[in-house]
Automatic annotation (TrEMBL):
Keyword Plastid appears in the UniProt entry: no
A matching Pfam family: YbeY
Gene3D superfamilies attached to this UniProt entry: Metalloproteases ('zincins'), catalytic domain
Gene source species: Pseudolactococcus raffinolactis
Family from the record: Belongs to the endoribonuclease YbeY family.
Binding site for Zn(2+): 129, 133, 139
Protein name per its UniProtKB record: Endoribonuclease YbeY
Record lineage: Bacteria, Bacillati, Bacillota, Bacilli, Lactobacillales
């Protein structure tokens, strides 16, 4: 899986970014995601993630991670639209892009302090949590929460990123 990484904060080391890429590739293998998939991660501060949270989720508060899942079938065309071959090829390329994550490093540090574990573990947790969201997992109802949370803990433990 290809992961585009951007650190808008200038505070996430290259080593930690590379560790996150390795972790998410491990997670992708763990859930048997096809190798041709792509995603993006952007590290931000609380003010920026609050804007993103407000825009996409209607919640005007900073949060730890925002996951934006992309599904090509969500693109709607008019009834009479005939798709040019060039556009069809672009949409097929777009099908490989599964989504993007925004992670607040300030929230990650705050939560690591509150939970009593390492900052690196919290960033890894948030990356896996968001990754599972963009791959269709959710925790809106108790049954789904049990599945998603068990899977994210299984991935983190198997990778060796424990509390």
């Amino acid at each position: 899986m290809y992961i585009e990484m951007q650190d808008k904060t200038g505070q996430v080391s290259e080593a930690l970014q590379q560790d996150t890429i390795k972790l998410l590739n491990f997670a992708a293998d763990f859930i048997h995601l096809p190798e041709n998939k792509e995603m993006a991660i952007t590290y931000v501060l609380n003010d920026e993630i609050q804007e993103i949270n407000r825009e996409y989720r209607g919640k005007d508060v900073p949060t730890d991670v925002v996951s934006l899942e992309y599904e090509p079938e969500d693109i709607a065309f008019g009834e009479d639209f005939e798709m040019p071959e060039e556009l069809q090829a672009e949409l097929e390329d777009f099908d490989s892009f599964i989504g993007e994550l925004y992670i607040s490093i300030e929230k990650a540090q705050e939560q690591a302090d509150n939970y009593g574990h390492r900052y690196e573990r919290e960033l890894g947790f948030l990356a896996v949590h968001g990754f599972l969201h963009i791959n269709g997992y959710d925790h809106m109802v108790p049954e789904d929460e049990k599945v998603m949370f068990a899977l994210q803990e299984e991935i983190l433990t198997a990778y060796g990123l424990t509390r």
